## 1
Amino acid sequence: MSPAMLGFIGIIALLALLALRIPVALATGAVAIVGFALSGGLSGAGLTQGVATIPAILRELLQLDAMAMVALFVALGNIAFYAGISTRIYDAAQVWLRRVPGGMAMAAVLGCGGFAALSGSSVACASTMGRICVPEMLRHGYDPKLATSSVAVGGTLGSLIPPSILFILYGLLTGLPVAKLFIAGLLPGLLSLAGMIAVILWWVHEEPGIAPKPAPAKASRTEATLALWPPVTLLAIIIGGLYFGLLSPLAAAGFCVGLAVMIGVLDHRVSMDVLWIVLRDTAVQSASLLLIVATATLFLGFVEQTGIGNAVAEWARISGAPALTVIAIAAVICLILGMFVEPLGILVLVLPIILPLMQAYGMDPIWFGVILVKLLEIALITPPVGLNVFVIGSVTRDVAVDQIFAGVARFLLVDVLVLAVLILFPVLSTLLPSSMVP
């Protein structure tokens, strides 16, 4: 058996395990360890010698500052949630847009964007905002499809709008600067947000009865706007600090964690008991993510050792396929995988092949990172897996999952259109990173 064939078998084995719902870390770790052992056997070095490289790979990974950054941004999301900071954008948007047709659904999308940006987790956003937004919209007579799908798609914005956990993981696995990845996702994230708002406006225009006008809000617009200062301040520190070169991602995360704790304490929402819960949740979530990073790094190392990625890149180069065609094929593969595999699994599966292709065609890795994360965002709402959809279904048991998917289908069309725009106009992803202050 050739090394390239072994790499191909490893990718197929990982795909099969992920399709069987084996946890990402367990599946990638098992395939990587067995792969390294068999690779050593094929080379004549022996099975034991094959796995001897694993400790060195892990030692190098654990020395990266980005590993600590994962824990800090996870902690920021937890503190912002318990301090009541994450939902303030939704509260303000609901006051300002309440009398606009479909305004509550638009407020849900905006609120999800703000929540997901602070937490970095689309699933956590869907879970929390689903409990807050969906029951209120249903109580005011909103169509269940609109109420649930607006929150499901809004939650995906956390994949692009900084600070995104997916961008951190992509940066860790590729060695790219996380700060540039964060800033690169800003304009595509806002474009995705605009597309979601446009879908709601069109939907309500076509079917006015699905979004009745609710009663006026109790709070004034001035009060709602003034209450926005905590999330706006935190996002300004992260985005502004990174763009103008004032803070590293690690420093921005640490500073915002301290500020969020202070805001929570002053608002009497964060106590020692709450801090203990935050620390416990952060430890569990960070350990899970870091385990995925560690096993994914091993898997990438194994596949790189087999040379299958370089073989595919050489085949694509010899065939004369245009770069745009390669990107389109990769996008279709990711969209198909999104129907059966969770986003993190897709990231691990495609990187070993995509990275050599990207290098062979001279593609901008920052731009491609945005395209890949956008694809993973779409995977969160793609049937039949649609992780965000099932999260919404679990927290709002009155609405069937098939109804949520029916509503999400309208947003999927616009998401694919936004993806096409990002592929055709790379400047949308590269403009801000290229103008960052070093």
## 2
Amino acid sequence: MRKIKSSGTSKKGILTAITFVLLLTACGRSEQPTPSSLRASPASSKETPAVITLLPEQHYGDKLQMQDKRQKLYHFITTELSGTAGIYTNLQDTEQTAELTTGHEMLSESAGLMMRYKALTQQKSAFEAEWTLAKQTFNMEAAFSYRFSPKLQKRYTLNAAVDDLRIIRALYEASDVFQSEAYMQEADSFGKRFYEHNVKNGYLYDFYDETYKITNDFITLCYIDLKTLGLLPIEAGERQTLIASMEKIIKDGYLSDEFPFYETRYDYGAGKYSSDHINMVESLLTVLALAEMGEEKAESIRYIKERVKAGTLYGQYTREGAATTDTRSTAIYAITAMIGSVIGDQTLYADSIGKMNEFQIEEVGSSLLGGFGDTAAQQAYSFDNLMALLAYTY
């Protein structure tokens, strides 16, 4: 779940808005409770970027006949884990007053993941319905709110860059899958807005606060979606500067060949990286972002393949590579499956999906049937379930 709080709940004003993001820990903020070619179409004054392949090409999920598991999971998400305003963060509701996103609050993260799923599975009317709902729930003047509380009727007035980029990517994917100029135009419009507020001097920032008109002063590495940044409808020189800057920040955050993952965040003012510990979901998303650009390190893939096959890829490590927990999660294996698909490694995909499937609930009569969660506690988190759903489509 998201460790983040809004400046809207703070009495410290701008200072809190600048510093609160230190609580933010992941691109996927759920805790797991259980053991085609596409071209952006910028305005005529801007140079068209090179063709970027966004859509998964391998379709390993279909080749390995994951359609039934995918459908059962989709049924769980849409019948048990969803409300009228979107997808619940957790199956169990709360008062929705905590600093962390909890209970039946909604995240723009979830909307973007479901939009991608409906685009990739070519559900045109379902995609349009999901996009319409996402705009109603999350769209603000300058960005998409990262969080909405139905109980409090509260839309938090800041975004999370990675979540906005995911929605923008989903629109580009939909424009390609459905051959829709309208989705292309919307992707360009929201992409331009995103660039104006979340990018400064060629560098990406974690959030933009619409109340105080500010960003934070660092970047969380797993927020750097290089592929989608490459589609933003901006000048060619601006695009080149942005991609080069952010790719360098990722690569310079590499830890070691012995533990081939990445630092958590980079502070622009201090010019330094920091990581209290290494959350595997975060580092895997960074590896995935590099893989989508053909820039993944062989050492990272080797390590991932070995640990996935052994079932020993855990949730958190020290910077030196010592596991701090023996917890495994659905999301970890979903992301490694996506990495396998992107690099064309069917063995990695199959091994990852096999480990992930060990967590799927198959108890007939359970309210979690088809989902991923803890049947005893009746808990299930949106990120784990939606990442698994997406992995099945890769």
## 3
Amino acid sequence: MTKRVSSVVSAPVARLAVGLAVLASALPPAVAAAAEAAPPAGRDPAVVSDWMRTAADTIAVEVDGTPPDRAFWEAYAATAVYNAVTGIEGRFAPYRWRERGPRHASSAAAAAAAAHRLLTHYFPHSAAGLDTALKDTLAKIPDGRAEREGVAFGRRAADHVVELRANDGRNAPVSFDRPPVPGVWRPTPPAFAPFSNAWLGRMRPLLLRSPAMFRPGPPPALGSARYVRDLDEVRVFGARNSTRRTPAQTDTARFFTELDIPGALGDHAARHRLDIASTARLYAAVHTTQADAIIAAWDAKLRYGNWRPITAIHRADEDGDPTTSPDRGWEPLLTTPAHPDYLSGHATTAGALTGTMTRLLGTDRIDLTVHSTRGGTTRHYDYAKPYDRDAIDARVFAGIHTRTADVVGNRVGHRIADWALDRYFRPLRGH
């Protein structure tokens, strides 16, 4: 489990009515400095990180699927929390909402109530645990009008997101029925499962105007120089028994399988002492752009439907290039997911992540510590470019994507982030 760094604040100190200035005069200098820096309990940014962790854990249990299937649920939770917080704090433009909360309401109580309301609506089987988590959060916030009004406003924020996302295409019947001619995707070993969650490519985006808004041009044609070059690279470096792939490259392939992005964002927010509004904005901006990146990637998968490297290598005698030959015993390092090669979902969401953080921070120094929940290791990235590079390389070294699918996907993710941050989560005038 990722170690999350939270703000240094004790609940008893936060609740004292005497005020931090008076308290500091009676405390040792180091303790007084910590007390002065600590936010009041009613505005503690750690509540946002804690509830986004609760959301991620709840979704992981409730949603039977892969990370792409779970990403938009995290985006729903993040936007509900963001609207609850910014509706009270101001500072940033709410997400598709014009409501303002009571000026003196607790934004921390609103954040917790919004996440709780949204999660219990979609996942009622987890209600008991979520109820306990809400009680634990509210126990740290002084009782009274500010808490009550915060809770009420948070629930309104969650209800608004639920209303916004009604009939958005979740689990709609979308099929991929193109004939399996050379170059076209078909189920891959070992499970030979059908196209996984094709509906993601037709889902209504959270930010973009349509799934196809940033659809790229087609992948390299069969037999083209780029196609042959891409396939040869995967064949050599992505094979399960590759002698060319280094141990470090193998580690990179295994690392970028399933990442704890909520934990990474919480750690970043705590170390940089972001306030509650900026913390909520970080989660909402990253999760919504990543969700739309998945939708855009699946749109391309449905549109172009090109086969995976394992199929292309096994059936290289069908690609129209006399210089390529099939290797029917070739296996990738990692199991190939059940959907087409182009675009790579991981590379597209990586571009959305780094692009969003770069825009929010005003620098490419993202300072991000990320834990791989499946790989079991943790990496720190000072800058965006190395993160993008590793995310692109990882799927090639894993043997499951061509480099073009990764590079183009990453570029699309950045374009989504740039477009979205020009229009959403912007500072309000005067802030």
